[in-house]
Design brief:
The longest helix is centred in the C-terminal third of the chain and has 23 residues, at 90-112. The radius of gyration is 20 Å and the shape is elongated. It is an all-alpha fold. 68% of the residues lie in helices and 0% in strands.
């Protein structure tokens, strides 16, 4: 299945017309029609607007699978945490992961009782 196939499949699931999709993404209707007619795919600068409108991840849109990846917005707690984590030395990354695993284990143990 191609990227454009997934776009049109999701639009159908959402009962969204090409006109509505065009208005919400800012992509010309003629461009969307070209994707359908010629089985072409959108350019990379259109991926995120498409994902936002369809409520899908870039991984799902591009590959049809999003079970191996997380997509996180930069301005969220998780996004800030990931940005800070990337700045750390590998030794400190391991310490952070160990700390997180210990907290999760404690939390799970607490929820049993």
């Amino acid at each position: 299945m191609t990227v454009s196939d997934r776009i049109f499949m999701k639009m159908e699931e959402l009962s969204m017309t090409q006109k509505e999709f065009s208005e919400k993404t800012g992509i010309l209707q003629s461009t969307i029609s070209e994707w359908k007619k010629r089985k072409t795919s959108p350019l990379s600068d259109k991926i995120m607007p498409i994902c936002n409108v369809l409520g899908v991840t870039p991984e799902w849109l591009l590959e049809g699978d999003d079970t191996s990846y997380y997509t996180v917005k930069k301005d969220t707690d998780a996004g800030r945490l990931m940005a800070d984590y990337q700045k750390l030395d590998p030794h400190f990354r391991e310490r952070i992961l160990g700390y997180a695993e210990a907290i999760i284990a404690m939390n799970q143990a607490d929820s049993i009782y």
